[in-house]
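Okay, can you check this protein?
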Amino acid sequence: MPKPDAKPGMKREIAVAATVIVFAVAVVSIISSSSYGAQTLQACRRILLQQPRYSCIYAYANSSMNYSACNMLPGQQSALCITAIARRSRNPDACNSISNPGQLYNCITNVSYETSNQSYCGILKGANSSLCAFDVAKSEGFANSSCAAIQNSSLRQECVYIYDYGKAASLSNTSYCAALPNETNSTLVSEIISKDYTNQTGVSSLESIDFSGLNISARNYCYFSVSVQSGNATSCPGAGPFSSDCAAYVNGSRSNRTANENVTELCSSVPSYADGLCKFSAYTEHALSDRNLSSCMQLGNITYRNSCIMQLAEMYNDSSYCSSIQRNVSLESSCNASS
């Protein structure tokens, strides 16, 4: 007895699947061609199914670096195609064929990132030009020269403030903190903390803090962070509402702390935003009281770990500890010179 024919719906599914496979093979064959000319593009355009046709055109445009071909794609796909080519070719003029302001901003900013050239941001109009320049400055770690190129005065000043904090943190020099505003500004403080602007790991330790409910200024935070980072409590008064906590963490003066306490258990009782500082203080105290380098090495934050090692070397006048300092040649040299 002959087998019954497949159901009509199943036949259609099989036919569609076969067609997709055929067109996928066609796309690979077309784009693998050694030359990219009008014939290749026309072959893409003859593909009947929409998505394979768009994929073929996108691949052709990127392979041939022909951003005009991207205009055959719809809306957002066209903008993404142009942006990819503009960035790879480092050519901001390619972005001019994008009409949507948001997509144009994305394209120009991408090229500006790629070339580290803020002048391209001038292609954008109004506020977008300054936002682009700020984003490029951010990608470069807020160098002072990058801040100067931002037209909007508020964004330019914010950039300079973040630059000042970066200098304070990288040099452990609180004189830069004095240049920061002393008014409560959770947005600025969050911006400072959201990135490590000194190109070290985790200078900031309050990453999980909710600033909306705290009366803290950028200057307060700068004094707090740099004092703890450097292990020097003399600048803690500048931390404002955090001054007493700052001194406690630097001096290891928490009354319930002993050398035998479990640090994780101890720090579980402090607010989440202070966990990193608590561990830094506790492990450093253990290291200094026991002359034990392994306590410093328990710190995952490399800046805190290096500070702990530095204090250990200075206290015991033993430069052999200095070789354990990581990713900071100048600090290691300073450690060797002072111990």
Observations:
- Residues 322 and 333 are 8 Å apart (CA to CA).
- Confidence is low (pLDDT under 50) at residues 1-35, 196-212, 253-260.
- The chain has 16 helices and no strands.
- The two ends are 96 Å apart (CA to CA).
